[in-house]
Design a protein that fits this description.
Distance between the termini: 58 Å
Order of helices and strands: EEEEEEEHH
Number of domains: 2
Structural class: alpha+beta
Strand order of the largest sheet: 1-7-6-5-4
Number of helices: 2
Length: about 130
């Protein structure tokens, strides 16, 4: 699938801006190592912006961003060939998170030598069996 990048908005630093319900300034941007070449939508100056990822328990979003001038940021989102904004799949669905947390608890119990306590915990709390 061919993708293009569409200018979504020009904002000032820390101006609230949401992508899929996430204010991007409230999260750490992880640089994917990929870049896009583009033109400023007003002055048509060439820029090379990084593609960033913000990954939370609810959303996993990708966007390109960079400064047009001091504290003035351009935000871009991907489009597919039908000009629909590309939606990134949420890679942290609740079952994956639950499984990861459960494995962590099991490893902690084993590391502490409390395997019998773990079995009791599973027996009573998860299976709902009481004696």
């Amino acid at each position: 699938m061919t993708t293009n990048w569409k200018h979504i908005k020009t904002i000032t630093f820390n101006e609230p801006f949401e992508i899929e319900g996430l204010n991007i300034w409230n999260y750490k941007w992880v640089d994917t190592g990929n870049k896009i070449n583009l033109k400023d939508p007003i002055y048509f100056q060439d820029y090379c912006f990084s593609i960033f990822n913000v990954n939370t328990k609810k959303n996993n979003v990708f966007f390109a961003a960079g400064e047009f001038s001091n504290c003035v940021w351009g935000i871009y989102l991907q489009e597919d060939e039908s000009n629909q904004l590309v939606k990134q799949k949420n890679q942290n669905n609740s079952s994956q998170i639950w499984l990861k947390k459960t494995i962590q608890v099991i490893l902690i119990f084993i590391a502490l030598g409390l395997f019998s306590s773990l079995i009791y915990f599973l027996y009573v709390f998860i299976l709902g069996v009481k004696h």
